[in-house]
Design brief:
The protein has a seven-stranded mixed beta sheet, covered by helices on one side. Helices cover 35% and strands 24% of the residues. Helix 4 links the parallel strand 4 (80-83) and strand 5. It is of the alpha/beta class. It has helices at 13-21, 39-46, 62-74, 92-97, 118-124, 160-178; strands at residues 2-8, 26-33, 51-53, 80-83, 102-106, 129-136, 146-153. It binds 5-O-phosphono-beta-D-ribofuranosylamine (GRF). 5-O-phosphono-beta-D-ribofuranosylamine binds at residues 8, 10-14, 84-85, 105-107, 132, 168, 171.
Length: 179
Amino acid sequence: MKNIVILISGRGSNMQAIVNAAVPNVRIAAVLSNSETAEGLKWAAERGIPTDSLNHKNFTSRLAFDTAMMEKIDAYQPDLVVLAGFMRILTPEFCAHYEGRLMNIHPSILPSFTGLHTHERALEAGCRVAGCTIHFVTAELDCGPIVSQGIVPILDGDTADDIAARVLAVEHKLYPKAV
Ligand code: GRF
């Protein structure tokens, strides 16, 4: 059995997809967040999954927060740490500590559109497709080795929200498979 710790910041729909997929030989050891009000925490707790949070606002530096978070994560002895909408830029120390066992999902076809507002930027650039990328995390933002990618069309008249919804449906299929 492999232990997985999932980190979220908000609704956690990707986390829910991974939990619901009941991946063979995988135990969701914990769902952790940088916000005690992340909606996904409640969902996980209701299903008997251990949850916890650490508010980054209570730390004086990025490294102090990451170090405390690493301690929490390591208590669950994870084989894999899964970032699922965890809206934090990670320190090189955090990335090095989990090298090769830290995954992220990013809502663009990397290496295009790293960072935020990916669907708006794809629209502005006139792209005809959008998508998502699951990758191992390295210290460089949204740049680690790619595990898998999903692609959807951008249709005439689409808003960024339309694209986000279309991409999210693909994320929910792709992330459990990647795990
Ligand atoms: C997803 O679009 C994911 O690609 C990005 O953040 C969003 C998280 O959504 N990293 P959710 O919290 O999993 O619903």
